[in-house]
Amino acid sequence: MSKKAVIILSPGYEELEAVAVVDILRRAGIDIRIAAVENGPVASARGIKIVPDVSLDEIKDDKFDLIVLPGGLDSTETLSGDGRVIGMLRNQIDEGRMVGAICAAPTVLDRHGLAEGHEITCHPVCREAVRHSRISDKRVVTDGLLVTSQAPGTALEFALRLVELLEGTEKMKEVNKGVIARL
Predict the structure, then answer these.
(1) How many CB atoms within 10 Å of residue 160?
(2) For a surface tag, which of 49, 124, 166, 182 has the fewest beta carbons within 10 Å of its beta carbon?
């Protein structure tokens, strides 16, 4: 049975982070759904629109092996203020399942106490906003159920780490044979 994941988009998301994660997880055979906080196509920080598979309301009570939050300053503010998203993240962590966040999105976890006491990384411009977590300079950080990463330039490493945690090192290496990312 394949693992289930969801990536949650809101306006202003970082397109490289979203597309890289979806692409790499699908290459690994992981059932990743694209959900959106609003109905209809969602515009990225640079105006690229993605049509989500589902609305957040349709899946907010579903169980996933992984929930992913892409970055983008506007997107992160929307995600942080959306009770559905925070409820999903709390349940995910409380029930022992993984959460991934990249770029500005790790600040959502910190702001709501979901990364308290954990080591995380995020985009350097967002580090001053982190109050309850330990900041790392590493490109990708795994601490317990949380996997965080710094920026669009680390998106492939981040996505491949998610594959490794969900499906194992051999599957991650198999996927990387096709994309040839530096790890």
Answers:
(1) 25
(2) 182
**99 vs 137: CA distance, rounded Å:** 19
Segments in the chain below pLDDT 70: none
Q: Which residue has the tokens 């559905």?
A: 84
The answer to whether residue 126 is catalytic is: no
> Strands 146-149 and 98-102: what pairing?
parallel
Look up tokens 């994660």; give the residue: 21
CATH number for the domain formed by residue range(s) 4-102+155-176 = 3.40.50.880
Residue ranges of the domains in the chain?
4-102+155-176
Look up residue 175 and give its two tokens: 């996927």
Taking only the tens place, the pLDDT of each residue in 96-115 is 999 999 999 999 999 999 99
How many other β-carbons are positioned within 10 Å of the β-carbon of residue 58?
13
The two three-digit tokens of residue 50, written as one number? 């993605």
Residue 11 is given by DSSP the state T
Rounded Cα distance, 37 and 116, in Å: 25
Q: Please write the tens of the pLDDT for every residue from 155-176.
A: 999 999 999 999 999 999 999 9
